[in-house]
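Hi support team,

I submitted a single chain yesterday and got back a structure, but I'm not sure I'm reading the token output correctly. Could someone confirm the output below corresponds to the sequence I sent? I've pasted both exactly as they appear in my results page.

Thanks,
R.
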Amino acid sequence: MDIRTGKTIAHYSAGPESFSSNFILYFYRTRGGDMLVGTGRELARFDSAAGRFRKIDEVPHGSQRSIAEAADGTLWMATSDNGVHWYRKHSGEHGAYFHDPKDSFSLAGNNVNTILIDKSQRIWAGTEGRGICRLDGTAAGGGTPRQTGCPAITFSG
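Hi R., thanks for writing in. Yes, this is the structure output for that exact sequence:
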């Protein structure tokens, strides 16, 4: 939208070459300048050369709820139905945390509403009815993020 004139400059909607859901939950601009959109089904990046949004295939489908970016550029996404996902654009690496009832160090629940990265680069995930978990996203040497300490810091009302 052009703020001065109040006119719409462009309109983007779901389609085969774009995001697949018009249920838009957030916009996010990365430190590198990428414009992202989280929808009810996936994460998509704006391709300025093509003038459209493209799905980020490395991030599995899930209803996006929140996003945060770590100092190293790793994106962390909370989903309402598919746990927490992380993605490093520069390397293509990606992974996820899920609830596993057999693993006391797994995510407390797969319905995650919000994600936050604090000043110490600790990742906090707020779940639906299962409390808060802290995830270790700063493995030494830029290694694979791992989940630590969920039972010790999971709070519930």
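A quick pointer for reading it: The longest strand covers residues 24-29. Let us know if anything else looks off.

Best,
Support desk
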